[in-house]
Amino acid sequence: MVRTLPRALLVLCVAVGLQARAADVAVGATRDGDALLIEATADFEGTVAQTWQVLTDYDNLASFIPNLSVSRVIARSRDEITLEQKGEARLLFLSYPIEVRLVVTEVPQSKVMSRAVAGNFREMSGTYVVDAQAGRVKLRYSGRMVPDFFVPPLIGAWVLRNNVETTFSALVDEIVRRQKSTDR
C-alpha cells in the first residue's frame, strides 16, 4: 500500500498534466506611463455564431466571469449599447473595486469595441475581434486602461495580466462549454 500511493499520485499528476485545454490562451500586459496595455488571444474549436452569442451576452457576463458582480445593459440604440459593470481586481490580500460605464459598438459577428464614459478609470478602451479559420475560432482582445486609483508601478502590469487572464479564460471557457452543449 505504501509503494502504490506514490505511484497513484504520479499517475494522477501525469494524467492531469496531459489533459488538453479546450483553448490555447495567451495574455500579455505592459505599462506605458500611467497606461496599462493588454493583449489576449485564444484559439479554440467552435463557431463565430456561438462566440458572438457569448461575447455579446452582456446581461449574463457576471454569471461566468469571476470577480464581475454586475453587468447590465442600461441603454441600447441602433448604433451603441451602454453597459454598467462592477467587480474587483484582486492581488493576494489587496482588492481594487472596479466600476465602469461602457459605450459598446458592435460590428456583427466580427468586432466589439468599448470605451469607458464613467467610472473609476480615467481612460479605458478595448476591442474584441473574432475570426474563423477551418472550424476554429481565433478571439483577440486588445485594451488600454488608465485607472483612477493607485496601481503599484512594479507589479501593476502583472496584476492586470493575471486578472485579464482569469477573465478572458472564463469567457473562452463559456464559449467552448456552450458550443459543446449545442453540438450534442
Can you describe this structure?
The structure is a single chain. By secondary structure, this protein is an alpha+beta fold. It has a single domain, classed as START domain (Alpha-D-Glucose-1,6-Bisphosphate, Chain A, domain 4). It is built from three helices and eight strands. It has helices at residues 4-18, 48-55, 156-183, and strands spanning 23-32, 35-45, 68-76, 81-91, 94-107, 111-119, 121-133, 136-147. It has an eight-stranded antiparallel β-sheet with strand order 1-2-8-7-6-5-4-3, with helices on one face. Helix 2 crosses helix 3 (156-183). It is globular. The model is unreliable at 4-20 (pLDDT under 50).
Key attributes of the depicted protein:
single chain; 184 residues; alpha+beta; Alpha-D-Glucose-1,6-Bisphosphate, Chain A, domain 4; eight-stranded antiparallel beta sheet
Outline the secondary-structure elements.
Blueprint: H1 4-18, E1 23-32, E2 35-45, H2 48-55, E3 68-76, E4 81-91, E5 94-107, E6 111-119, E7 121-133, E8 136-147, H3 156-183
Antiparallel strand pairs: 1-2, 2-8, 3-4, 4-5, 5-6, 6-7, 7-8
The CATH class turns out to be Alpha Beta
Query: What is the number of domains?
Result: 1
Give start-end ranges of low-pLDDT stretches. Answer: 4-20
Portion of residues within helices: 25-40%
Content-based structural category: alpha+beta
* Rg computed from alpha carbons, rounded to a whole number of angstroms: 19 Å
Strand order of the largest sheet: 1-2-8-7-6-5-4-3
Please work out how many helical segments DSSP would assign: 3
Mean pLDDT: 86
The CATH topology annotation reads as: Alpha-D-Glucose-1,6-Bisphosphate, Chain A, domain 4
The CATH H-level superfamily is START domain
Oligomer status:
single chain
Instruction: Provide the β-strand percentage band.
Output: over 45%
Q: What is the tally of beta strands?
A: 8
How are helices and strands ordered from N to C?
Answer: HEEHEEEEEEH
Please state the overall shape, judged from the principal axes of the Cα atoms. Answer: globular
CATH architecture descriptor name? 2-Layer Sandwich
Distance between the termini: 42 Å
Largest sheet: 8 strands, antiparallel
